[in-house]
Amino acid sequence: MLKNVFFTILMMFLFVSCASSPKTYKDDTPLKAAERLLDESGSNEIFTKTIEKLIDSQIAQTPDIAPYRATLLNFFSKYMSWDSLKPEMAKMYAEMFTVEELNEMADFYRKPVGKKAAQLMPEIAVEANKLGQKRVMEHMAELIQMLADEEKRINSEKNIVPEEQLEESPAKTE
Description:
Structural class: mainly alpha
Distance between the termini: 115 Å
Number of helices: 9
Radius of gyration: 27 Å
Shape: elongated
Strand content: under 5%
């Protein structure tokens, strides 16, 4: 009886500890863990869908570029393909996270909520992009004024006279 209780407690402990800790791999290096994370998170599909959705979002905002959609997609697939970027992305993740952190993130993407997050990431990126553009457009006049003020400040430090002032000043007579 005591053996059964002990065995049950031991099994529960092992189950909880295995369920809560990330998988470990014998040959883990930061780079391999990063590549595994990118695979587990569906980064290839997310990246491809995000590019397509961002292009479509730009087309919605600027319909004149709609005839160039295929050209834009071809360009991005040629120079921004996931296969060409994955090694650099994996290196970046490997430099920024420990093996344990990478494994924990990969574990997250194995779970239903992680899969859902990965699936929705392209939509989130597009909506975040729209939000940012909307916010900037709402305050565009202020941004233009701030840039003009900064240009005046920079030019005054360099003793540069803006073109408008040159045109407004009376011509010197000789």
